[in-house]
Design goal:
Elements lengths: L4 H9 L1 H33 L4 H48 L12 H14 L1 H26 L3 H26 L6 H17 L1 H6 L3 H53 L8 H15 L5 H18 L22 E8 L9 E8 L4 E6 L5 H8 L7 E6 L2 E2 L5 H7 E4 L8 E2 H5 L8 H10 L10 E2 L8 H13 L5 E5 L7 H14 L4 E6 L10 E6 L2 E6 L1 H7 L2 H15 L1
Parallel strand pairs: 3-10, 3-11, 6-9, 9-10
Antiparallel strand pairs: 1-2, 1-4, 4-5, 7-8, 11-12
């Protein structure tokens, strides 16, 4: 039950509604039992032609119990569902608050569709924990105990049958089904996650699938995942119906047994026959309340599995969950030290970067170059705390990133990544992500600096910038970062899709704005690096050369060979 501790804590916060749900449920169950018992007694008494006032009293009692049952049923549903919705709200908020510090590193371990299934589907499935697992058994036990005490006044033997039936329908049969469920692997949550993942990839890759004519294969895979989920749901439904059928049969058998024993007691004059119909109606009614207990094991297992998936999401070894207490100042440029750092992703056989040592002084201009896959972008992600080092440490202004809050790191650094997300909305909306306080003139100035002054601020941008070219996306990302007020710049291939003239203009504005700031430029282009304070050359996850442009060219090493190859390519073009 450790998996459900978070749900239980959320229920404690809603203890008032939980208590009212239990009380209203008890009143509903007691009124229902009393209603049918009074009806049976009324029918028996009416056959004996009692005085009119006795019939009036009994009839009024039946009507009153019916009214109480209806009102208490409404109150039970109201408070139980209000408690459930409040619990789910609290769980969503709690889960998001715990998950948010892991983003975006969490996408290295979970696909977005699977993560969405956990956030939405698994939280929704936890609603059954309160509505089907927690409070119904409490109400049922209270109603049964009240009924058994009442029946004992008329017959101890029949009361014993009630006790036996109560134990069977409430404990023995559900326990037996729980043991059986361990042999039956119903993985509805996992199948739903697989379907969600496939659907997400299908939508994201729809254009490429069309271009490469792979729609049919991916569609079959999606339909297969859907069929698997439907089959699991059918199996789960059949199992649940079978459980309920067994419990229903047992409840009816006990009612018949009560009728037989009651008839025997009446024939032997050990009980007044006027009470026989009442006791039979009592048995039918109270054991109907026990039938839903057949679904108890299924809902309990479902809740434990959903809570376990949510808990596992937050307990991965890939995430550093130490409490970070220090804030990184954004008022001055950063001094960065990378000391003996290794980064290796989960399930990868080799490290992405290994034994990296880099020093980037305050206010310096550093270029990180290398072939594709050499580890340049991983080093950037390490600086931004988007990935965690397997060993070694990264110091920002002398403080380990493990001691700093992610928010303060991201506030202090102006970042342009290789892929930049744009939201559905206007140009202005996407540029104001950095700071809502920017004026219209400052936004237009930023657009002008990146040659996007032909765009109006209210021009529409589609989701993920689908109506923009790659060059326009990069320029818009540069305009966005020019509006940010951090003193350290980390730029990962910021102009790879731009022509040389536009690139030169953008960098001229950048160098002017950030002349006293720390700049880290990650690029595969070697043109224009002559004025950098240092150039770091990476290959296969290692730093193989460091120095100024002149020093590296004089060494005639890896950087020199790359530069000569670039010149040959450009001369051919």
């Amino acid at each position: 039950m450790k998996e459900l501790s978070t749900v239980t804590k959320a229920m404690i916060h809603e203890k008032k509604d939980v208590f009212l749900s239990i009380i209203a449920g008890f009143i509903t169950g007691t009124a229902g039992v009393g209603l049918f018992a009074a009806s049976g007694y009324l029918i028996s008494q009416a056959a004996l032609e009692p005085p009119l006032y006795a019939l009036i009293i009994l009839t009024s009692t039946v009507k009153l119990l019916g009214l109480v049952r209806a009102l208490s049923r409404y109150a039970e549903r109201y408070y139980s569902h209000r408690a459930t919705f409040s619990i789910l709200r609290r769980l969503r908020v709690t889960f998001y608050e715990k998950l948010e510090p892991f983003a975006p590193a969490i996408f290295q371990e979970y696909q977005s569709g699977d993560l969405l299934a956990r956030i939405v589907g698994d939280v929704e499935r936890l609603q059954n924990y309160f509505l089907r697992v927690f409070y119904p058994p409490i109400v049922l036990i209270m109603v049964f105990l009240m009924t058994i005490l009442f029946v004992m006044y008329f017959s101890v033997l029949i009361a014993f049958v009630f006790v036996l039936g109560f134990l069977l329908t409430t404990f023995v049969i559900p326990a037996w089904f729980t043991v059986r469920q361990k042999q039956i692997q119903n993985n509805v949550g996992e199948k739903r996650a697989t379907l969600s993942t496939n659907a997400t990839e299908f939508l994201y890759g729809f254009r490429d699938l069309k271009v490469y004519q792979q729609m049919d294969g991916k569609a079959k895979e999606l339909l297969g995942a859907s069929s698997d989920l439907i089959q699991e749901q059918k199996e789960e439904g059949r199992y649940l119906i079978g459980n309920q059928a067994v419990n229903t049969f047992l409840a009816l058998a006990i009612s018949v047994l009560v009728l037989g024993i009651g008839a025997y007691l009446v024939s032997e004059r050990h009980m007044d026959g006027v009470f026989l119909a009442m006791l039979v109606m009592l048995a039918i009614t109270v054991f109907e309340e026990a039938v839903p207990m057949a679904s108890f094991p299924s809902h309990l297992r479902e809740s434990k599995r959903a809570a376990g998936r949510l808990s596992h999401t937050l307990q991965s070894d890939s995430f550093n969950i130490e409490q970070r207490q220090f804030e990184l100042s954004r008022e001055k440029p950063l001094h960065i030290d990378v000391n003996n750092v290794d980064v290796q992703f989960q399930n990868e056989h080799r490290p992405a970067i290994k034994d990296v040592n880099v020093t980037i002084p305050t206010g310096s201009k550093t270029a990180i170059v290398g072939a594709s896959g050499s580890g340049k972008s991983i080093l950037m992600a390490l600086l931004l705390k988007l990935v965690s080092a397997r060993q070694g440490d990264v110091l920002l202004n002398g403080r380990s990133v493990n001691e700093l809050t992610e928010e303060s790191i991201w506030e202090a650094i102006n970042v342009v990544m290789q892929e930049n997300h744009f939201f559905y909305g206007s140009v202005q909306d996407n540029l104001l992500l950095t700071n809502q306080a920017h004026t219209m003139s400052s936004i237009r100035s930023a657009l002008q600096k990146v040659n996007l002054d032909h765009l109006a601020l209210d021009d529409h941008i589609y989701e993920r910038g689908e109506n923009l070219s790659d060059g326009e996306k990069q320029r818009l990302a540069m305009a966005r970062v020019l509006l940010k007020d951090g003193r350290t710049w980390v730029l990962d291939e910021p102009t790879s899709s731009l022509d040389a003239v536009t690139e030169k203009k953008i960098f001229a504005h950048l160098w002017q704005q950030a002349k006293d700031d720390t700049i880290i430029l990650i690029t595969h282009r070697l043109t224009g690096l002559e004025n950098m304070d240092q150039i770091i050359v990476m290959d296969e996850g290692n730093v193989i050369e460091k120095g100024t442009y002149e020093q590296l060219m004089a060494m005639k090493g890896h950087f020199y060979d790359m530069k000569q190859l670039e010149r040959q390519v450009l001369s051919v073009l």
